[in-house]
Amino acid sequence: MKTYRVNEIFYSLQGEGVRAGTAALFLRLAGCNLRCTQAAHGFDCDTDWRTGRPMTAAAIVQALKSASAECGWVVITGGEPGLQVDAALLAALHDAGLRLAVETNGTIALPPGLDWITVSPKVPEEQLVQRTADEVKYVMSAGMPLPRSTVRADHYLLSPAFRGGGIDAEALAWCIRLVRENPRWRLTCQYHRLWNIP
Ligand code: SF4
């Protein structure tokens, strides 16, 4: 039976983007096709996606329902979830009554049927495969030029990078300036880091 490599399953609040603050189950899939670093991307990847254990779709559904029988949303994240999500996994999750959000770096084609797509590009936009989304979100450090995003989305978000335990003040001031000058964009934040939740 097919298995997926799962890093962790937990219940928390969505900490980023337009849906920030809403209760959400998280399915963190292992593996990523990128290696984000300060030098190349303006920040170092701080997500553990290297470890993982094999789970069937049925075992994933069971673990999600054990984490919360009430919550109706799952955020599928990684690593890069596009490496593993497929129609069979999405069908199993939908059949369990769950709505599906995904957070992707946009470099891998996603199967149809997702209910909310967040593209958070880490490479130049011409390298993106996922060209439509509900929201596009960039993590910004001070001085980074405003992305000329060509992904078709309802929301375009700038999220100031963190430094140490808090928001980088220069990155925040830079994002505020960019949003004032380019009102298509909206300021967001990695709220879960402020709220100290996973
Ligand atoms: S795409 Fe995301 S998970 Fe992958 S290396 Fe970059 S920041 Fe880390």
Instruction: State the domain count.
Output: 1
CATH architecture: Alpha-Beta Barrel
Instruction: Report the CATH topology name.
Output: TIM Barrel
Side by side, the strands of the main sheet go 3-1-2-4-5-6-7-8-11
Order of helices and strands: EEHEHEHEEEEEEHEH
Bound molecules: iron/sulfur cluster
Give the biggest sheet. Answer: 9 strands, mixed
Helix content: 10-25%
Describe the 3D structure.
- With 198 residues, this protein is α/β, with parallel strands linked by helices.
- The protein has a single domain, classed as Aldolase class I (TIM Barrel, Alpha-Beta Barrel).
- It contains five helices and eleven strands; from the N terminus they run E-E-H-E-H-E-H-E-E-E-E-E-E-H-E-H.
- The chain has helices at residues 38-41, 57-67, 87-95, 169-181, 191-195; strands at 4-13, 23-29, 53-55, 73-77, 99-104, 116-119, 135-140, 155-160, 162-163, 166-167, 185-187.
- A nine-stranded mixed sheet has the order 3-1-2-4-5-6-7-8-11. It has a two-stranded antiparallel ribbon with strand order 9-10.
- 34% of the residues are buried.
- The model has no long low-confidence stretch (mean pLDDT 95).
- Bound molecules: iron/sulfur cluster (SF4).
Features:
binds iron/sulfur cluster, 11 strands, TIM Barrel, 9-stranded mixed sheet
Short overview:
This protein is an alpha/beta fold. It has helices at 38-41, 57-67, 87-95, 169-181, 191-195, and strands at residues 4-13, 23-29, 53-55, 73-77, 99-104, 116-119, 135-140, 155-160, 162-163, 166-167, 185-187.
Mind sketching the topology for me?
Blueprint: E1 4-13, E2 23-29, H1 38-41, E3 53-55, H2 57-67, E4 73-77, H3 87-95, E5 99-104, E6 116-119, E7 135-140, E8 155-160, E9 162-163, E10 166-167, H4 169-181, E11 185-187, H5 191-195
Parallel strand pairs: 2-4, 4-5, 5-6, 6-7, 7-8, 8-11
Antiparallel strand pairs: 1-2, 1-3, 9-10
Iron/sulfur cluster binds at residues 32, 34-36, 45, 47, 49, 78-80, 105, 122.
